[in-house]
Fold this protein.
Amino acid sequence: MSQARERGIPDATVARLPLYLRALNGLAERGTATVSSEDLAVAAGVNSAKLRKDLSHLGSYGTRGVGYDVQYLIYQISRELGLTQDWAVAIVGVGNLGRALANYGGFVSRGFRVAALFDADVSVVGERLVGMAVDHIDELEDVIRKRGISIVVIATPAAAAQPVADRVIASGITSILNFAPVVLNVPDGVDVRKVDLSTELQILAFHEQRKADRESGSPIMAENLAEAMDA
Amino acid sequence: MSQARERGIPDATVARLPLYLRALNGLAERGTATVSSEDLAVAAGVNSAKLRKDLSHLGSYGTRGVGYDVQYLIYQISRELGLTQDWAVAIVGVGNLGRALANYGGFVSRGFRVAALFDADVSVVGERLVGMAVDHIDELEDVIRKRGISIVVIATPAAAAQPVADRVIASGITSILNFAPVVLNVPDGVDVRKVDLSTELQILAFHEQRKADRESGSPIMAENLAEAMDA
DNA sequence: CACACTTTGTGCATGTCTTCACAAAGGGAT
DNA sequence: ATCCCTTTGTGAAGACATGCACAAAGTGTG
């Protein structure tokens, strides 16, 4: 049974697994041993049917009439996400953002480790940050290979992002997290995820403007009513 | 015609408009006057059919046989996103991340303006950053009202995020950008967008693990082949 | 052991998003 | 004015994601 199991997890589901994992860790800290899909769904801010379907893609880890064992589910999701191994991450660009990322404790905690820092500015090179010395960008290829880096975070100015991406890809990296506000051009097989402040603000502005329009009562009533029904 | 026009833009489309806008600004800087859907799609990293369908939701702003006028399209997208007006943004939490966000020039540029900074730490209050003095969190409600803040960025530690959200919502804010790694509980009508470093890294780790599994040749060949066909 | 109660896992219907493929529309040359 | 070339805008099909609603499977009590 379950032809959908054992590889073939929908992207939408993968994107929510970290959310579930965080909610579960919160429950575990409070000493909860088991949790129902309903309660976990509330904690993660999703619909319980969706949660159950998502979890069913990993396997059948719940007990009917009882719920899910918190520790066991944490383990299974961690394993599926690859967090039972250690990932060496490099941060390229030690400006304001790069420093913030390096200092951000949350991501060092589980599975990820800052194993290299790079900058092009020689006045920054050598500086120590979270116990790591900043290397010059010229050493990029060497250090990536020597320290077994497998994920690179780009926190450079926009103009530097593409050249940096080209170089890390040439060094064999296939997973990039990009904070620079540019579309990176990469070959097939390389995964890029993008985090973009101004995009998020613009999306918020769009919805905010909508709300304002609606309140100031445009005459197109039928349309406004239709919109009001979207939750 | 076009019943879908004049309000009713799909979320997926809204999320891509900032991308198009950035690509168009790049073209405009290089002096390009008109652009085809094909070229713009490449610059934005999407499929051209998708681009055309997205733009068609805003109206019919292209010219067949020619393409889109770059300046005109910039204006139309900006207007749709609400960037022709000025948005006063507050940043709550002036730690590493808050400072990075405040200093990040990219989002001040177009439509957004940092109009307030808050922190709970009295040793930070009063400090000046990008021309703004940091206010104490006790002044939150007052300052939000007085300065006409309409978007709040939460860059606090996880534990502080929910109480801050409750307070800004009580002050009438309905648009929040949350950098803290927690699910915010908010009433209907309030939009929350989330930016989460560790979630993104975990998604990358998942795919990275997959690639590694595939290379080290698990014996389940049919499945691997099927996967290899996803681009 | 039987029955009542809880909660999972999933088939199915519905809704949303993507992509293809082409008719319609404009520009420019002769 | 006609013809050819380019490119848009969109109908229709397919892929993907969501949510309902319920059978199946477990617990616990008497």
In short: The first strand of chain B starts at residue 34 and ends at 35. Confidence is low (pLDDT under 50) at residues 1-6, 219-231 of chain B.
